[in-house]
Design goal:
heterodimer; A: about 180 residues; mainly alpha; 2 domains; 11 helices; about 0% strand; globular; B: about 650 residues; Rossmann fold; FAD/NAD(P)-binding domain; 5 domains; five-stranded parallel sheet
Chain lengths: ~180, ~650
């Protein structure tokens, strides 16, 4: 697993992440508290602290192709516990976004990435989630049309699937958030 | 007739838990000559000592046995208590029934039997004790400091300010040691020479300090209060009192390209007649005869002499031996850097741009070969990327030394920081195993190097460094991300491990102080007597004791000084009276004792009659040096030496007490 560090590329990548993250990569101690508490780390190929270090070292390919950034469930356990107050959850978001922008498709976590895209689209257009639309688009995208179909009646019964979507009052605010992140 | 008191201590449950203390007391009372036997929970407590003193008075005791802890703990306490009642303190004996009985045995019955035996032995011994007087040694109130680095200078200044004369001996042409070679100091980034030169000047001008630079200690004999020191003042070829330090001589010297500057760690050249650096103290040049053309070519060249205004250059000056008598000594000989050329993978010595931390320090320094501009030794270009490698030689029991050199983590962080400050847009990488930054402000300093100055720290070792198209390719590991990395660097700085100064082991042998297997001087006690050596009157300071930074060196210099001022606050030094004693009537002058004595305490003494005719030669014990170890007693063929307090009849009585 040899990596040749190209100083210019390293700087560009680290700078891009840092500017989107509004935080410094060097802040990380590499103490591993984030990785220790992560509820999904058993499925990850790199632990969260490794992702931070590799980002600092400019290992763009490895980071953007990792399973880790797509497996992160943004539960924020890591960020809450980080002794340096580093945005660990945030860096996962940033890296996902960079992967999306650069058109890097995850080879292993394809469906998670698709869900991520559909989910964000949904939020962008409604300001909140419209479940029926989300499910529909996701199924079309993954072509698993009938998977989990039997969950639908139960969800309907409990009022979890509404037939009509609602938009929030001020969609401009949502647009602003999305714009800021770009 | 002896009147002995036996006191059995419980030491809470420490002794009483395993030894039947009452039984020991009962057995003691049965021994003839024992007039009082007592057991008490804590004999060392005030009430314990008071009861001891009361019984001495009431029963008019002639000797005391304490069945208690090791004499290392409380022998002194009880001796002092006895002395207060007018009893000679050497009539107090300790039967060690804690360390040697209760703490090492489990069976109460057998432990008690052993405790009784030990107590009986001591009762028999104390019956045969004789009064011993402590020896008083007069003190010559003058101190010698060996090594003029920061620790030595600090010690010398503190002693001198206490009103005591000091002789400061430095091997190099100038005082200042390693610290004056450094650029800025962590964690405050004080300029090293700015804070060092005032101290050097003060030491030079202090009325109580006599400075011998370019000098070495040749020989030391004697003992605390009375060391005879021979100092070799090497021929400088310059008459110090006439020299003005103008520099005409070294400007005139034709040897200006071939000699590597020791002060700049081989990064520049010096002349044959030179001062190591501009702020040298004293500012008097030294003529290096090993390279001077005058000495190599039979006196033809004398350009320096011709250039010298006051004509203070004298090619005929010889080494001078100066003899001094001092009462105490500080050994602060400092450190060297390890030779790291055995790490072939790092290429030190092979690639010009792989340098040591001390060399980088000179590159940073305004008085250095590049006047503070960071330039590569190979082509003089300013490097943009530097890789720092920590633990080169340190923490490597296989090829280097197992210990941590302590200063490298901090100076590497400082180097990376100063590099970022001096070369904008540059990048440094630091390979480390662990980062040790434990003193005040140190951790914050290292974090600042990472977070503000952008140094990238990689936890792992470097496997190989090689040159490729003008770059040094550094291959290493980053164990935190689990990657092998390769960095193209312009320069590599190795944080080389520290070792004791070359020749410090020989000095230690001359001084009779102990040193560890690496050559660092060992303290009398690592925690409680850190400034004292194993020999009375000799104190330690600075890196000669082990890796330490500047503040710690200053503290240790001051500690040694305060010990010496404390010692000199009295007119005499008191030595325990339990030392060897020669029976001059039976001594046959074989001097086998002299050969086995580890402390050089035995000398030859001539006995003459009234007319001055020599009658015989006998062994003589120097009370200032003798530690009462007893090696000579075993060696003596004619049974002419005894150690006071451990006489044959006393030892035999102890053994006999066991036999019954």
């Amino acid at each position: 697993m040899k990596t040749v560090i190209n100083e210019q590329n390293r700087r560009n990548f680290a700078a891009q992440v840092e500017s989107m993250l509004h935080d410094k990569l060097a802040k990380c101690y590499q103490c591993g508290k984030c990785s220790a508490g992560c509820p999904v780390n058993f499925e990850m190929d790199y632990t969260p602290n490794q992702i931070i270090k590799m980002t600092e070292l400019g290992m763009e390919d490895k980071v953007l192709n990792s399973k880790t950034i797509w497996l992160c469930v943004s539960c924020n356990t890591c960020s809450t516990r980080c002794p340096k107050g580093f945005e660990v959850t945030g860096i996962m978001d940033v890296l996902r976004e960079i992967a999306e922008k650069k058109g890097v498709t995850s080879k292993v976590e394809k469906e998670v990435q698709m869900f991520h895209e559909v989910f964000l689209d949904n939020v962008k257009s409604n300001g909140r989630i419209f479940e029926l639309e989300l499910v529909g688009k996701y199924k079309l995208k993954t072509r698993h049309l009938f998977r989990d179909m039997f969950l639908a009646p139960k969800m309907l019964e409990k009022g979890k699937l509404k037939m009509h979507g609602e938009k929030i009052a001020d969609l401009n605010q949502i647009a602003k958030i999305f714009k800021d992140f770009e | 007739m002896s009147r002995i008191g036996v006191f059995v201590c419980w030491c809470g449950s420490n002794i009483a838990g395993t030894v039947d203390v009452e039984k020991v007391r009962e057995e003691a009372a049965k021994i003839p000559g024992v007039v009082s036997a007592l057991d008490y929970k804590y004999m060392c407590s005030d009430p314990g000592q008071n009861s001891l003193r009361n019984i001495i008075k009431e029963k008019n005791l002639t000797g005391i046995v304490l069945a208690a802890c090791s004499p290392h703990m409380h022998e002194n306490t009880f001796r002092k208590a006895a002395a207060k009642e007018g009893l000679n303190p050497y009539f107090v004996e300790i039967a060690n029934i804690r360390e040697q009985v209760s703490w090492v045995h489990e069976d109460k019955e057998r432990a008690t039997a052993k405790a009784v035996d030990l107590m009986k032995m001591m009762v028999e011994k104390v019956k045969r004790d004789r009064p011993i007087e402590d020896v008083r040694v007069p003190l010559n109130k003058k101190a010698l400091v060996i090594g003029g680095g920061i620790a030595g200078i600090q010690a010398a200044l503190d002693i001198a300010n206490g009103g005591v004369e000091v002789i400061l001996v430095e091997k190099e042409p100038s005082i200042g040691g390693r610290m004056i070679q450094l650029d800025e100091t962590f964690p405050t980034l004080d300029c090293s020479s700015c804070i060092m030169t005032p101290k050097m000047v003060e030491a030079n001008q202090h009325p109580n300090i006599k400075l011998y630079t370019y000098s070495e200690v040749e020989d030391i004999s004697g003992y605390i209060g009375n060391f005879k020191v021979k100092i070799k003042k090497k021929a400088r070829s310059v008459v110090e009192k006439d020299c003005t330090g103008c520099g005409e001589c070294w400007n005139a010297c034709p040897m200006h390209k071939n000699v590597k500057s020791e002060f700049n760690v081989n990064l520049s050249e010096r002349t044959a007649i030179y001062v190591p650096f501009p702020q040298a103290v004293p500012l008097v040049p030294v003529l290096d005869r090993s390279v001077c053309l005058h000495f190599k070519k039979g006196g033809k060249c004398q350009k320096c002499y011709d250039a010298c205004g006051p004509k203070c250059i004298n090619f005929d000056l010889q080494d001078e031996i100066i003899e001094e008598t001092v009462g105490a000594i500080v050994a602060s000989t400092g450190y060297d850097l390890m030779d790291t050329s055995m790490y072939g993978e790092y290429g030190y010595g092979k690639y010009k741009d792989v340098i040591s931390g001390l060399q980088f320090e000179r590159l940073l320094s305004a008085s250095g070969p590049t006047e503070g501009v960071i330039k590569r030794p190979s082509d003089g270009k300013t490097p943009q990327t530097i890789v720092f490698v920590q633990c080169v030689g340190s923490r490597d029991p296989e090829k280097g030394v197992p210990y941590c050199s302590k200063v490298c983590c901090m100076y590497t962080a400082k180097h990376a920081k100063l590099f970022a400050h001096k070369v904008h847009g540059s990048q440094s990488y630091v390979f480390y195993i662990d980062i040790r930054s434990t003193s005040k402000g140190y951790e914050e300093f290292v974090r600042g190097t990472m977070e503000q100055d952008g140094a990238i720290y990689l936890r792992g070792r470097v496997s190989k460094i090689y040159e490729d198209e003008g770059k040094l390719i550094v291959k290493g590991a980053d164990t935190l991300s689990g990657n092998q990395v390769e960095i193209a660097a312009d320069m590599v700085v190795l944080a080389t491990g520290v070792i004791p100064k070359k020749g410090s082991d020989k000095l230690a042998q001359m001084l009779g102080i102990s040193y560890d297997k690496y050559g660092f001087f060992t303290e009398s006690h690592p925690k409680l007597r850190p400034a004292e050596s194993s020999t009375a009157g000799i104190f330690l300071a600075g890196m000669a004791q082990g890796p330490r930074d500047i503040p710690e060196s200053v503290v240790s210099g001051s500690a040694a000084a305060s010990k010496i001022l404390g010692l000199f606050s009295k007119n005499e030094y008191e030595v325990e009276g339990t030392i060897a004693n020669v029976n001059e009537a039976t001594c046959v002058a074989c001097f086998y004792c002299q050969r086995v004595c580890a402390y050089n305490a035995i000398s030859k003494k001539e006995i003459k009659d009234r007319s001055g005719k020599l009658i015989k030669v006998v062994a003589n014990v120097n009370p200032g040096l003798c530690t009462g170890c007893g090696a000579c007693v075993n060696a003596c063929f004619s049974k002419s030496i005894d150690v006071k307090g451990f006489m044959d009849d006393q030892i035999y009585a102890e053994i006999k007490a066991l036999a019954v």
